[in-house]
Amino acid sequence: MVITLLSDFGDAYPASMKGVILGIHPDANIVDISHSIPRHDIRTGAFVLMTSAKYFPTGTVHIAVVDPGVGTQRRPIAAKAQSPDGDIHYFIGPDNGLLIPATRSIGKFEVFEITNRKLFRKNVSSVFHGRDIFAPIGAHISMGLGIEEVGLEIFDFVDLDFGVGIKTEDSFLGKVIFIDTFGNIVTNISSDIIDLKYGETLEIEGKKLLFLNSYGFCKDGEPLALVGSHGYLEIAVNQGTAARFFNKKIGDEIILRKIINN
């Protein structure tokens, strides 16, 4: 059974989570999605989880911990999502919105508050629920525990979504929802509404760029727009950093105006 881990923990803390998991499920196949999420950045963690989880096989348990509210009244939760094809994914983590975009991207889902303390480690640290609550819960579910055994279903979980970009007659309007390690700007403008042809010209705040198939179709240092592997409109600079070039950060609005080529 596959168990994935995602966190903002860096190098030191994930090892103890893996130790707890393997102590319960010695044959677990543990895959690190990332432990380099920026500290306390729930939205970035949610995006990375959303765009990664669906590629894992049915039955995968995803444990995600970006948890600035650890030890407070925020609830620990577990979710079960089912795709239209019947694939099942489980998500374990804090009730702060982190899990919801990923569960929703899979399909129909149910959310349960984790209250069954018999499944926790004996001594629960108030500052490390990843090790003492989420890791053992995920391990038990991967061993076949029914998700309803963790606690009662809830409907007032903290939601999070990235909004929906829109198309007007001459523009695409959206928001920056992710900036990757290359400095590429990912927007919430879905490929579903993009009706551009390769080579067409766009403009962002007076700066022109081409809509292209991939990064290498323009010169080094030139900006471009493309549909990224995640299925959203992406702004990039070949061999450069689009976030710096356009002075954009996560949450900023972005307007791409279509230019009629003469």
Describe the model:
The protein has 262 residues and is of the alpha+beta class. It folds into two domains: 153 residues, S-adenosyl-l-methionine hydroxide adenosyltransferase, N-terminal (Rossmann fold); 94 residues, Beta Barrel (Elongation Factor Tu (Ef-tu), domain 3), CATH 2.40.30. The protein is 19% helix and 32% strand. It contains five helices and 15 strands. It has a seven-stranded mixed beta sheet, sandwiched between helices. A hairpin with a 5-residue loop joins strand 9 and strand 10. Helix 1 runs parallel beside helix 4. The model has no long low-confidence stretch (mean pLDDT 96).
Supply the key terms.
262 residues, Elongation Factor Tu (Ef-tu), domain 3, alpha+beta, elongated, seven-stranded mixed barrel, 5 helices, seven-stranded mixed sheet, 15 strands, Rossmann fold, 32% strand
Helical amount: 10-25%
Sheet with the most strands, sense and barrel status:
7 strands, mixed
Tally of domains: 2
Care to count the β-strands?
A: 15
CATH superfamily label of the largest domain? S-adenosyl-l-methionine hydroxide adenosyltransferase, N-terminal
Give, in spatial order, the strands making up the sheet with the most strands. 2-1-3-5-4-6-7
Q: For this structure, what is the CATH class of the largest domain?
A: Alpha Beta
Distance between the termini: 57 Å
The averaged pLDDT comes out at: 96
Residues in β-strands, percent: 25-35%
- Please tell me how large the radius of gyration is: 20 Å
Write the CATH fold name of the largest domain.
Rossmann fold
**Low-confidence parts lasting 5 or more residues at pLDDT below 50?**
none
